[in-house]
């Protein structure tokens, strides 16, 4: 009973988050639409899990094993959408190919089953032994969990590397995603252990219930903080609270874009290791949401990308025209570590700082 309630709540919250990000994308941020599609897809997965958990698969035989396919798709889809939503540099084509091939291989492997009639599918389900460690259903469950763990882990590492270059409050929203990704990774580890200790429907139910709780927590935390940020603005910005959710007019957006460009021309400001979204918004005299909107519409990039590119341009000049060490140059232009400087430099120039200096220094 409690399990059905939690799964139903997870399904409803997935729909709610899909609608939340959909309307956010319609009125404020285009990339939110990607996230809305993910949560709509997740609601379909939760619906399949609810049918399975409630024991009603005999009424929907064509959904048998479809939940496994959805399970294989969740992590790659989430990873793809997160990179678009936060405008993180794209994954390599080899990694994206790998995450696409795994769900397709499952479809090919199970193609004969999916082509069966509903009656034959139900008969095959009754013959399955799901309470053994090496049963087909339990192995699929373990494989899905392990595959999801690998994809989410890579996403989490890349996310931390990207966000770690800036002050913690540069992207308050990114911090929420980072924390919930970590919680999800820990939960996936426990779920794999459950599949070994309690194979079968018990471990599947525990996994699905835990994921539902994760969705409920994320939904509350994400929406609550979005509202909290508006309430926490200083009194002198109270008039902007109403405006910050709106879409900036084109003329105003162009003016603010030029102002932001001029602000970032100040080297002392740009190279500040504590540079953050709040500080930039304060200089522009607008809210953080509006600042992000200016970045996306005027520059066609996220604030992180803009800052990275400008810092790397100054670093290139320093590499060509000075004998300072790479570490010194990296810190001088605002990076917090040598590794992050080298990684970003190579992503933008296809060369390491040492290779660039060797190639272009007179």
TrEMBL record:
The chain crosses the membrane at residues 6-23, 35-54, 66-86, 98-118, 138-159, 180-200, 206-225. Residues 254-359 form the HTH araC/xylS-type domain. InterPro entries: Homeodomain-like_sf (IPR009057), HTH_AraC (IPR018060), HTH_AraC-typ_CS (IPR018062). Keywords: DNA-binding, Membrane, Transcription, Transcription regulation, Transmembrane, Transmembrane helix. PROSITE patterns: HTH_ARAC_FAMILY_1, HTH_ARAC_FAMILY_2. Gene3D superfamilies: Homeodomain-like. This is AraC family transcriptional regulator. It comes from Leptospira limi. The lineage of its organism: Bacteria, Pseudomonadati, Spirochaetota, Spirochaetia, Leptospirales.
């Amino acid at each position: 009973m409690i399990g059905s309630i939690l799964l139903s709540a997870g399904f409803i919250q997935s729909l709610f988050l899909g609608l939340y990000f959909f309307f956010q994308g319609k009125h404020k941020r285009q990339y939110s639409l990607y996230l809305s599609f993910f949560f709509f897809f997740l609601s379909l997965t939760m619906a399949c899990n609810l049918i399975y958990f409630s024991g009603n698969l005999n009424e929907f035989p064509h959904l048998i094993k479809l939940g496994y396919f959805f399970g294989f798709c969740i992590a790659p889809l989430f990873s793809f959408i997160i990179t678009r939503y936060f405008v993180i540099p794209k994954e390599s084509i080899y990694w994206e190919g790998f995450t696409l091939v795994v769900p397709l291989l499952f479809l090919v492997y199970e193609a004969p089953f999916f082509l069966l009639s509903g009656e034959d599918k139900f008969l095959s389900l009754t013959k399955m032994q799901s309470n053994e460690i090496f049963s087909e259903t339990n192995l699929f469950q373990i494989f899905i969990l392990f595959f999801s763990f690998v994809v989410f882990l890579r996403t989490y590492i890349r996310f931390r590397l990207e966000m770690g270059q800036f002050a913690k409050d540069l992207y308050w929203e990114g911090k929420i995603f980072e924390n919930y990704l970590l919680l999800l990774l820990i939960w996936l580890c426990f779920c794999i252990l459950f599949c070994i200790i309690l194979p079968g429907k018990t471990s599947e139910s525990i996994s699905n219930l835990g994921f539902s709780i994760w969705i409920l927590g994320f939904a509350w935390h994400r929406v609550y903080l979005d509202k909290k940020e508006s309430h926490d603005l200083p009194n002198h910005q109270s008039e902007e609270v109403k405006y910050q959710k709106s879409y900036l007019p084109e003329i105003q957006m162009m003016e603010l874009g030029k102002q932001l460009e001029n602000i970032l021309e100040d080297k002392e400001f740009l190279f500040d290791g504590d540079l953050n979204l709040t500080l930039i918004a304060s200089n522009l005299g607008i809210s953080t949401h509006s600042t992000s909107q200016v970045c996306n519409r005027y520059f066609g990039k996220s604030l992180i990308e803009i800052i990275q590119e400008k810092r790397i341009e100054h670093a290139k000049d320093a590499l060509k025209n000075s004998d300072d060490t790479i570490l010194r140059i990296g810190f001088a232009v605002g990076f917090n570590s040598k590794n992050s400087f080298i990684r970003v430099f190579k992503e933008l120039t296809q060369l390491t700082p040492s290779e660039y200096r060797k190639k272009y220094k007179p």
